[in-house]
Amino acid sequence: MTGRHPSGGHTLNQTSNAAYSGKRITIGCPHCQSVLKVRSSRQTDPIVRQVTLACQNDNCCATFGADLTLTHVISAGAQPNPAVLLRTTPPRRRPANDDMPPCGDAPGSVDHPPANDDGALPTSDAVSGSPLS
Predict the structure, then answer these.
(1) Distance between CA atoms of 1 and 99, rounded to whole angstroms?
(2) Could you read off the pLDDT tens digit of each residue along the chain, which spans 133 residues?
(3) Domain containing 23: what range?
């Protein structure tokens, strides 16, 4: 289901306008670089939506077809559909210091020491500051 945008065109939003974030997907005409507007769309598969786009430049008037396809999961939902199989991307956040796995597992990579290890032995307790015996 598509919502109607106030300008009269369709949005690519599949939920109600209350859940719409306010950001629009835009793409330029490959011929004149004007903005393409969604004229129609239909859901062909749980992860594919076919879209018809029209150039807004009156001197160009090109029309295009496109497929909007979900390719991977960034954050899994609370009610996953078992029939939909998409790859899951790893988290974007890097682990802190010693939590990073060794780099030597990948071909051509080199193991690096932990970022907080200068190679020196500790001379005092890090919490109390008392000398170690």
Answers:
(1) 44
(2) 344 444 444 444 443 333 445 677 789 999 999 999 999 999 999 999 999 999 999 999 999 999 999 999 988 889 989 899 999 887 766 656 555 555 555 555 555 555 556 666 666 666 666 666 6
(3) 17-75+83-88
Q: What is the model's pTM?
A: 0.50
Question: Would residue 24 count as lying in a domain?
Answer: yes
Rounded CA gap, 13 and 43, in Å?
12
Residue 2 maps to a domain: no
CB burial of 9-43 (b: ≥16 within 10 Å; e: otherwise) equals: bbbebeeeeeeeeeeeeeeebeeeeeebbbeebee
| Domains in the chain, number | 1
Give the span between the Cα atoms of 26 and 13, in whole angstroms. 13
DSSP collapsed to 3 states, 30-49: CCCCCEEEEEEEEEEECCEE
Closest CA to 39 of 17, 60, 15, 63: 63
* Alpha-carbon gap, residue 14 to 51, rounded angstroms: 13
Contacts of 39 (CB under 8 A, 6+ apart): 9, 10, 52, 53, 54, 63
